[in-house]
Design goal:
Number of domains: 4
Low-confidence stretches: none
Number of strands: 22
Largest sheet: 9 strands, antiparallel
Oligomer: single chain
Shape: globular
CATH class of the largest domain: Alpha Beta
Helix content: 25-40%
Bound molecules: adenosine monophosphate, glycine
Length: about 425
């Protein structure tokens, strides 16, 4: 088979790496890809939002299956364009990707179908939002409705802060039209867990649990980022939590989407909070998590291409997912200054130390290859260093050890990825 993956981050590197293990695959392309992806796929210089060019490329190269990694093209309708052209593609159509693309949609869906989530109200009028806040309890959470690179969520400790937040989102439009509509929701406390799943429209298969670290600095300080590190499985995702989520959240979400005429095929990523009142949905994503994928896929035993095909064909009920009985930890190596200002174009050394290892991985996020074949930094999150081990502690020790193998100027990482492991 020939496969095309659309995206350019650490997540796509992990997806491409996993696809490359499949005996069914002869050739992998990735558009646009990055410096590391180029080692296991042919990178193609077409942007992820250039749907027509991507579809034309897929036709020309006779691609058997295209896998979409990123949220923007999914929410923009790339799957609809590919299907219209008669191409096989893995991911939700635009009318289903809205599960991630609109927080107001997903909150209303959960309310309508009784899926546990924080209490909330939706506002399109800033005056009404301000008036609502006058009687609200604090802290409170404000969310821009649309995609905002994970940054459109404000946790406000006081009325003053919340009013300033409404101004930022709705009047100053810091996240553009994503803030035309906002969700104001109850602040919840508890441990966060990410759960990834495959869905074929009807059947859902849960992968395994993971935990992300969204803040830039140690001790969960600093700005929100795309994710500074992950571990899998989460020791807090117990059999009891799993049973509860299977009964009240996972299948119910898939059935709700079908009932709404928005059949969901692809990945549903459940962002959960384990509250004192039971697990609740913080958010849905319509794609693999980044960097959750970098700890989940190295533990997966299945041929991922078979699972992708089962989702597209609607035969996922015939597939059982299998994971290694081990653990994985990923530490993101970023450029100092991320997520704000940082330098690019700095040479990276030491990557060859990962070659041929089966328990250490380096997934490239923001890298590129220059004319001399050198790998340079090319983004805020540069690399994801993953290690697997018999348990979480061993995996963490190995992952941090491997972060020392790689060097580049302004290398920055959190030193407390997986700290929660000690509290389990
Ligand atoms: P989201 O993009 O909806 O996942 O929100 C980003 C982050 O904001 C989450 O990972 C949580 O840490 C935090 N968050 C979102 N909603 C809430 C909430 N209702 N209560 C507490 N924290 C929240
Ligand atoms: N790591 C969180 C996300 O992919 O949205």
């Amino acid at each position: 088979m020939k496969i095309l993956v659309v995206g350019s981050g650490g997540r796509e590197h992990a997806i491409v790496w996993k696809i490359a293990q499949s005996p069914k695959v002869d050739k992998i392309y990735c558009a646009p890809g990055n410096g590391g992806i180029g080692e296991c796929a042919e990178c193609v210089d077409i942007g992820a939002m250039e749907f027509e060019r991507l579809a034309a490329f897929a036709k020309e190269k006779e691609i058997d299956l295209t896998v979409i990694g990123m949220d923007d093209p999914l929410c923009g309708g790339i799957v609809d364009v590919f299907e219209r052209e008669g191409l096989r593609v893995f991911g939700p159509r635009k009318n289903a990707a809205i599960l991630e693309g609109s927080k107001a949609f997903s909150k209303d869906l959960m309310k309508k179908y009784g899926i546990p989530t924080a209490a909330y109200e939706v506002f399109t009028d800033p005056e009404q939002a301000m008036a609502y806040l006058e009687t609200a309890k604090f802290p409170i959470v404000l969310k821009a409705d649309g995609l905002a690179l994970g940054k459109g969520v404000l946790i406000c400790g006081s009325l003053e802060e919340a009013k300033a937040g409404v101004k930022t989102l709705m009047l100053d439009k810091q996240f553009g039209s994503a803030g035309d509509e906002i969700v104001i929701e109850e602040f919840m406390t508890g441990r966060e867990v990410s759960v990834l799943s495959f869905v074929d429209g009807q059947t859902i298969r849960i992968m395994t649990s993971a935990q992300d670290h969204k803040r830039a600095k140690d001790g969960d300080q600093g700005l929100n980022t795309g994710g500074m590190g992950t571990f899998s499985p989460s020791p807090f995702y117990t059999a009891e939590v799993d049973a509860y989520c299977r009964e009240h959240i996972y299948q119910k979400t898939v059935d709700a989407m079908r009932a709404e005429g928005r059949e969901f095929k692809g990945i549903i990523f459940f962002g959960l909070m384990l509250t004192a009142d039971g697990p609740k949905v913080l958010e849905y994503n319509a794609r693999f998590g980044d960097p959750e994928t970098q700890v989940v896929l190295p533990r997966m035993k299945n041929d991922i291409v078979e699972v992708f095909e089962a989702c597209v064909d609607g035969t996922l009920d015939q597939v059982e997912l299998e994971f290694e009985d081990n653990a994985a930890v990923c530490v993101v190596l970023a450029s100092d200054g991320y997520p704000e200002k940082y330098e690019k174009g700095l040479p990276i050394s030491g990557l060859e130390r990962f070659a041929g290892k089966t328990d250490y991985f380096v997934f490239h996020a923001g890298t590129k290859r220059d004319g001399d074949g050198r790998i340079l930094t090319n983004g805020g999150r540069v690399l994801g260093v993953t290690a697997t081990g018999a348990d979480l502690k061993e995996a963490r020790k190995k992952a941090y050890e491997a972060t020392e193998w790689v060097e580049f100027a302004n290398k920055y990482m959190r030193h407390d990825i997986g700290k929660a492991i000690d509290e389990a």
